[in-house]
Amino acid sequence: MDTKQVKKVLQRYFDAFYNVDINELSALFHESIHIYGYDENGKLEVINKKGFLKILSSFRPNSENPEFIRSDEILAIDFISEDVVVARVKLRFYNSICTDIVNMMRIDGEWNIICILDSRANICD
To answer: What is the C-alpha separation between 15 and 31, in angstroms, rounded?
Structure first.
């Protein structure tokens, strides 16, 4: 199994969120990605790639806040097959520390993030 490559992609994911690097996130996310979470009323919210990147583009990089302490951790990596991975990760985005389920597939030899189950109630909190 390709654990080293998956860990590299997840590190890029952590770094991209920390720096609010829209270009890097766009490169990591497959075009058909969907992010599932809860809106401010506790209802299921499904956001596509374009919508998610638009939301994130309104944030400043966390690196600009001297009080920001990173809290990135890979909690588990499960290979469903040679080309399908489910990873459970913990990261901090501003004041939210969350556990996300990141689903990845190797497409044309490259690992792509295809789905995120987001534990934050609202990414804008």
So the answer is: 20
Q: Of 79, 68, 114, which Cα lies nearest the Cα of 7?
A: 79
Between 18-22, 26-30, 63-67, the lowest mean confidence (pLDDT) is in 63-67
The confidence score (pLDDT) of residue 120 equals: 59
Report yes or no: 21 and 12 within 8 Å, Cβ to Cβ: no
Tokens 């920001």 map to which residue?
A: 68
Cα→Cα distances 108→7, 10, 111, 112, 114, Å: 18, 18, 8, 10, 14
Query: For residue 28, what are its two tokens?
Result: 């990591």
**Any domain includes 122:** no
Q: How many domains does the chain have?
A: 1
Tell whether 124 is covered by a domain: no
Assign 3-state DSSP to the chain and report helix, strand, coil percentages, each to 5: 30, 45, 30
Q: Which two tokens stand for residue 33?
A: 């990605």
Does pTM top 0.70 for this prediction? yes
Under 8 Å between Cβ of 76 and 58: no
